[in-house]
């Protein structure tokens, strides 16, 4: 089977949620014996070492320029998709069994004359209309709020158009899958959990009292989450011996001045760390205090894989399937969120039990390769009949 994957970002290194999901799928498809070609229309050219790493799984890599201009804001197509219009014109040498679109952003590939639309599959990372609306709520700049709201409306219109051109969907979020299935029961849609390496789970150490947050520091919803934690939770933990709040993520050079309005005693910030391994290894628990967002918060799943039990808001664990009180602790009110953290910091046995239950659940439910294999087999059976 020959599959073309179309991405809005180079999938390697897998250092944030979108890349983690896409990279895991590339490896799974290669292990299933598929011949893979990759087209990427992103902002930056990847390094030679990153291209080589992907080349071990992919037969051919095509890098497509992303072009954007201010006038694109006046178009009806979302700027994130319009800037990738070149996908509709790039030469493609092969006829593919399937074309896997990694998100709505790469929609223009369907305009390419070499693409057979009936073979297109969309990986839904987020409901982009909902996601951009959430970003508008989190943004502090009026200009950014306007941009996100405009993109949200455009994505809502694009999604309706896409349903007339694509009838195969793979959802990363079970919640969004159920909502879509109720809307369009005739589509060949499926919940495909994010890829998880069943051999890579780490045990919790609970040696420190470090509370960890990992997420892109340039995203307004992550910034909002960190500031909410610093304002409402952090002051109530400063009396805990050994407590530190450890924040790590990529700022894309946008600076971290927004943190200066808060009490940064016992706060440790790692801007664009080369590795998260030591941060996870030295952590006690993970917090995901997000207030706005959509899709699955892969940061929550990754923290559990890396040996940290989780305290989260309802948004922070949305779409994961994790159960409050059994796999993690959930709270949206500051006093309850704070209480959960204090409880786990004082009770390593309780923290360990939550972590083990969460890891057991993920091992059992997040078998990405087997679900993907069954889905492709079902598609082939329908094509043959």
UniProtKB/TrEMBL annotation:
UniProt-listed Enzyme Commission number(s): 2.4.-.-
One GO MF term attached to the UniProt entry: glycosyltransferase activity
Protein name per the record: Glycosyltransferase family 4 protein
Keyword entries, A-Z: Glycosyltransferase, Transferase
SUPFAM superfamilies: UDP-Glycosyltransferase/glycogen phosphorylase
Residues annotated as transmembrane: none
A Pfam family annotated for this UniProt entry: Glyco_trans_1_4
Superkingdom of origin organism: Bacteria
Gene3D superfamilies in UniProt: Glycogen Phosphorylase B
């Amino acid at each position: 089977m020959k599959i073309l994957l179309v991405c809005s970002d180079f999938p390697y290194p897998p250092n944030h949620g979108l890349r983690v999901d896409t990279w895991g799928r590339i490896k799974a498809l290669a292990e299933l014996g598929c011949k893979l070609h990759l087209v990427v229309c992103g902002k930056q050219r990847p390094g030679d070492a990153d291209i080589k790493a992907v080349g071990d799984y992919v037969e051919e890599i095509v890098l497509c320029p992303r072009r954007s201009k201010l006038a694109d804001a006046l178009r009806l197509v979302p700027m994130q998709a319009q800037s990738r219009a070149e996908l509709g014109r790039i030469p493609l040498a092969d006829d593919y069994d399937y074309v896997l679109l990694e998100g709505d952003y790469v929609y223009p590939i369907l305009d390419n004359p070499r693409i057979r639309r009936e073979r297109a599959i969309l990986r839904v990372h987020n409901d982009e209309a909902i996601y951009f609306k959430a970003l508008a709520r989190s943004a502090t700049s009026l200009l950014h709020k306007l941009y996100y709201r405009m993109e949200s409306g455009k994505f809502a219109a694009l999604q309706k158009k896409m349903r007339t051109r694509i009838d195969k969907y793979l959802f990363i979020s079970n919640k969004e899958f159920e909502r879509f299935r109720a809307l369009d029961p005739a589509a060949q849609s499926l919940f495909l959990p994010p890829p998880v390496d069943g051999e890579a789970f780490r045990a919790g150490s609970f040696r420190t009292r470090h509370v960890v947050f990992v997420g892109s520091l340039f995203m307004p919803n992550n910034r909002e989450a960190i500031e909410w934690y610093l304002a409402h939770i952090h002051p109530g933990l400063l009396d805990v011996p050994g407590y530190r709040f450890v924040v790590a993520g990529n700022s894309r050079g946008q600076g971290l001045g927004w943190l200066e309005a808060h009490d940064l005693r016992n706060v440790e910030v790692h801007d664009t760390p080369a590795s998260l391994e030591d941060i996870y290894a030295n952590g006690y628990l993970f917090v995901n205090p997000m207030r706005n967002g959509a899709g699955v918060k892969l940061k929550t799943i990754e923290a559990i894989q890396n040996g940290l039990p989780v305290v989260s808001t309802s948004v922070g664990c949305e779409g994961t399937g994790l159960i409050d009180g059994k796999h993690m602790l959930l709270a949206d009110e500051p006093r309850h969120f704070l209480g959960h953290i204090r409880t786990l910091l004082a009770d390593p046995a309780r923290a360990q039990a939550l972590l083990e239950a969460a890891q057991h659940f993920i091992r059992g439910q997040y078998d990405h390769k087997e679900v993907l294999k069954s889905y492709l087999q079902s598609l082939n059976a329908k094509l043959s009949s």
